[in-house]
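ok trying again, last paste got cut off:
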Amino acid sequence: LEQKTGENGLGIADLSSSLPSGHTNAIFLRSDETRLDVMKSVIFGAEGTPYAHGAFMYDIYVVESYTDQPC
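nice, full thing came through this time. structure:
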């Protein structure tokens, strides 16, 4: 995975090795190759929680002013 860094300094490639991965409690993040402000995430619920065996998909859009203004 090629290292890509946006204006906020977040290394997208760093996430591939720092997020937990397993048959439960896994998080996957995919970014657009041309737009780092558009991402898709899939989170699998951890065993022993009400979210176990669930897959939750999120479309993520980071506004241009993300690092300049508080949320």
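cool. The beta strands are 27-31, 38-44, 55-61. Residues 43 and 65 are 26 Å apart (CA to CA).
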